[in-house]
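Residues pack. Consider this:
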Amino acid sequence: MLTRKIFIFLYLLLLTLILFGNVVITLGAVELRHSTYSENVYGPKVIVIRVDGTISTWTVDYIKEAIDIARDEKALIVMELNTPGGLLDPAFEIADTIANSDVPIVGYVVGRWALSAGTLILFSTHIAAMQPITTIGSMQPVLYDPVTGAYTPVNDTKIINALTKKVEQYVEYRGRNVTAAIKCITENANYDANEALKLKLIEVLADNLDDLLVKIDGYKVKLIGNKEAVLITKGYKILRYEGSIRVRFIKVLSDPMVSGLLMSLGFLVTIFSILSAHLHITPIGVLLLMLGLLGSGFNVNLAAMFLLVLGAILLTIELVTPGFGIIGGSGIVMLAVGFMLLPTGGKWYIGPGAGYWETLRITGISIGIFFGALTSLILYKVVKVRKRRVTLWEFKGKIGRAIDPIGPEKPGYIVVEGEYWRALSDEHIKPGDKVIVIGKEEGILIVKKYEE
């Protein structure tokens, strides 16, 4: 019990640091970076990021992280796009982030395509480029029904007009062909690389990343506030950024198949646990449902706080109930996942620094893994003991000593392994003789003389 209290105390302490960490006011030391280039020159360092699969909340954080790194390194960003599209709200947020970025971002369509939300993001970049045999377009919004799996085109003028206006702003600001871009929405037009270049929807056609960096050397682009930036890529150094642990975890959950499977399992487990009165299983269903919702675009920060609070509650319940089972294990997993999903702040601010949050996250995950493994070991031992065959104490073959005279019709007492038992025998046995048990009938032992 003392060990369990220590475990839970450590988790509650970590949760307290999370909930009240923002109250602590600290001012991080400012590191001054001196670039050998002038203020408006970016390069030759190139941060390469890749946006593939479904565009969702993970993509927003991924791109913002890359912008922070590029700003510190005085680097430009090449964003490789190979996506069929994704959620509209994250796509708008990404496009606005790029449009307002003080770091030049080159959008580069590779692989197969950058359709729908991918095209919207491409139009917002400072330089748009495509690989041969790639496609952009098909920007009409659709409504997805997760129950039937059907896609229904959205014709609501409120949504269409808003999307059209945003695309017009992005394209016009970059000096591209507004008419051709709008057709991607109103007519679901698609353009291959050659058509897009001819229609001035993109600026560069490049066979590969090296070819792209050679062709954009010396380009001048307009950043937010009409600030002009010069791209220097001669002698470039490529740094590929895959994203933080948090971003990669959310990316896995954002896969439609993974998200749908988690939500289905979570719903079934929750319903089953309630209907069968096995309420201790309910937290597992809730956890699966929350992970599925994360993949569907649910706010990550709210999900992290929900998991942290619920995990602490479950561990508190475990503290006042006997045993250490599913409730405590679910609480540990929720806290570990909650720590993993916590956001890290930017570099310049008053408050706990990024190092604080990262250390706290790593500590929480490490403790979660350790206690999760410990819980699994305990559960394994419990199951192993329960499956073990029950062995009853056997009298047959035990050696004892007669206390009374014993005969065929004259029962008497014997001592077997420190216990007194009534016994009968076909032989005449004197007090003090050694006997061996050969059977038992109706609570009386059957014995005979023991010959050594």
